[in-house]
Amino acid sequence: MTKKEIKNAINKAVYQYAESLGYGMFDDNDGSTVTFMKEGSNYDDAIDYHRSEHNTIVVNWASDEIKADAKLIDTFAENQMKQYQ
After folding, report:
1. What Cα–Cα distance (Å) separates residue 4 from each residue in 9, 52, 60?
2. Which tens digits make up the pLDDT trace of 34-53?
3. In this structure, what is the dihedral angle of CA atoms 34, 53, 73, 22, given to the nearest 10 degrees?
4. 69 with 57: CB under 8 angstroms?
5. Residue 36: helix, strand or coil by DSSP?
6. Rounded distance, CA 65 to CA 54, Å?
7. What is the pLDDT of residues 55-65, one digit of tens each?
8. How many CA atoms lie within 13 A of 62 on its CB side?
């Protein structure tokens, strides 16, 4: 697989994992990040996922549940990256 194919495979797996946690995915089409949000939540309780770095970003005042889910997504992404090393 090429590097681009590997990144795409990791991202696809992460998107599916976030969906399994109850998150919808919103893409602003800038190519660098997507946002995971649960229905009815606001942007304070959103998880931004960086496609190239395969990590999440949340605001400091996000709920504990969102922070915990972001850590789960990060761990899942790390495990996916290890599969392609």
Report:
1. 9, 10, 32
2. 999 999 988 899 999 999 99
3. 10
4. no
5. strand
6. 20
7. 999 999 999 99
8. 24
